[in-house]
Amino acid sequence: MKEQEPGTLQLLIEHELALKQLYEVFAVAFPARRDLWLGIAGDEQDHADWLGALRSKDAPGKQAWFDQRFKPQAIRSSIRYVEQQATKARESRLTQREALSIARDLENALIEKQFSRMSESLPAGVRSVLSEIAAATEGHRQAFSEALAAEKQ
Fold this sequence. Notes:
Blueprint: H1 8-29, H2 34-56, H3 62-69, H4 72-90, H5 96-109, H6 124-152
């Protein structure tokens, strides 16, 4: 019997947790920026928790909205990429500058950008969570860009 594939919302939660783990690995590998890595790792855990809370809310059309906006294969591909970068960092195959660049690029390309294109038909609570995640992601992009610029000097 074939196991049921995780839904899009579950994959998004797994993506947040993969990012959290990556940033925790970076915190160990690059202790000079430990606070930055761990702070954003904590945010990723919050995002996973918030998305998890959405699973339990009875929101008509919610799952369909996620399914229409996000391709499961793209999320799985991104999770694999994040895991590969964590492996490289564990094996000391990345510099701090590369790690910051990877993190910035991940946040720039992040699936969460789609959250800013929310439908008014979504329940207010769902829109609020997605808005919070989108705003935090913008903050992450900015923090990584600033750290990368400082690293280049």
